[in-house]
Specification:
The protein is mainly alpha-helical. The protein has one domain. 71% of the residues lie in helices and 4% in strands. A four-stranded mixed β-sheet has the order 1-2-4-3, with helices on both faces. A hairpin with a 6-residue loop joins strand 3 and strand 4. Helix 6 runs parallel beside helix 8, helix 8 packs across helix 12 and helix 9 runs antiparallel to helix 11. The two termini are 36 Å apart.
């Protein structure tokens, strides 16, 4: 990396230093939350928590379901907060944070409230199913989980994104016309081009295409528009259009739905094993005291499948890069865009292989630049 032609030694060292400083806290938060989930799910402590939380609201079965689900969510949030605060402090030292502590805390409250708004109805529905069939509840539960994932994918840009950001239409002008022209040439229908007020939280650069069908829109961070050259913005959007062109959002939604269904099925089958129920202090899956056990099983499935999901994501992102090159036929500007993103976002441009295999959802900056340098147009240059 000392002789990297794209990044100075100082830029490489800065990205590595940020990664080394924040990674222990990020991993610590994730592992601590997982450990808490396993302790509550695989010991009677979780059953006691559900009983206590339900007792605060009358002690009925419904109260135990709602109280137990809320208690698990709040504890999970609380145990992550110190680690998240430390990560924020580290990133602030590198100039990546523009938001004050008050805004950070408000976002944490908003995230918790949104999570509870989704979790509590789902928990009620789950235990309505277990009440009807303590051993086969997972069959309709898997189908409903798949439908929920699909619905959230469609509604995310309309209901969830506005909770954390304000969006304004991009003003008429050459850049907006160029972005819409890219989408038209690509055969992708977008509803609108929006600007997200990311600068009130961060200096990081990004853009994305979100939504399905009638909710699809191009979204650019205001930090990107204020920092990057217009052609670089086009390259970022061209990459995002690649996800739409290859139906990555739809495919991801379908795979997410299938994954959710499979997770519910595996969880339901595992929750019929009496030794697990005994360890958790629950009589059956219909007992609200089984809630921490179900949460622990889901957490284990998520942790085990994480590297596979990351590997699939890296392949998808590399394909979107190729699409951006094919759409624009501008590898030089693509390389300039990747350099700007890596430097401004203080990325580790060539992280250790083990970290890539376990966690990376995108190829490293050096790999993306190398791929751009070796890319050659297959069908000639793109239309002007």
């Amino acid at each position: 990396m000392a002789d990297d032609p794209d990044f100075t030694p100082e830029q490489v060292a800065r990205g590595r230093a940020l990664r080394r400083e924040q990674l222990p806290w990020m991993l610590g938060g994730a592992l601590t939350a997982l450990a808490l989930t396993l302790v509550l799910g695989l010991t009677p402590a979780g059953a006691g928590l559900v009983t206590w939380a339900g007792g605060l609201f009358g002690g009925s079965r419904t109260a135990e379901v709602l109280g137990g689900a809320a208690a698990l969510a709040v504890l999970g949030q609380l145990v992550r907060l110190p680690f998240g605060a430390r990560v924020r402090t580290v990133r602030a030292r590198y100039g990546l944070v523009t938001q004050g502590w008050g805004g950070w805390a408000l976002d944490a409250v908003r995230g918790l409230a949104l999570g509870l708004a989704l979790l509590l109805p789902a928990a009620l529905g789950l235990y309505a199913l277990t009440d009807r069939s303590p051993t086969r509840w997972w069959i309709p539960g898997a189908a409903l989980a798949a439908l929920l994932v699909a619905a959230l994918s469609f509604l995310h840009p309309l209901l969830i994104e506005p909770v954390f950001n304000r969006f304004t239409p991009m003003p008429e002008g050459p850049l907006r016309g160029a972005l819409l022209g890219l989408a038209e040439r690509d055969g992708v229908r977008v509803r609108e081009v929006l600007v997200a007020d990311a600068s009130r939280r961060t200096t990081a650069l990004n853009a994305y295409v979100s939504g399905l069908g009638s909710t699809r829109r191009i979204v650019a961070y205001d930090t990107l528009l204020a920092t990057a050259e217009p052609r670089e913005v086009e390259l970022v959007v061209a990459h995002e259009l690649g996800h739409v062109k290859h139906r990555d959002v739809l495919t991801g939604t379908l795979l997410g739905a299938l994954g959710a269904a499979a997770a519910v099925a595996v969880t339901g089958l595992a929750a019929t094993w009496q030794p697990l129920l005994d360890a958790a202090g629950a009589d059956s899956a219909a007992d609200p005291r089984s809630l921490p056990l179900l949460a622990a099983l889901v957490a284990l499935i998520a942790a085990a499948t994480g590297p596979l999901q990351a590997a699939a994501s890296r392949r998808i992102e590399a394909r979107a890069d190729r699409h951006a090159l094919e759409l624009t036929n501008d590898p030089a500007q693509f390389i300039a865009m990747q350099r700007r993103l890596a430097i401004t976002n203080v990325s580790d441009v060539d992280p250790p292989r083990l970290l890539v295999l376990l966690f990376a959802t995108h190829p490293s900056a050096t790999r993306r630049i190398t791929a751009a340098r070796t890319w050659h147009p297959v069908e000639g240059p793109a239309d002007p």
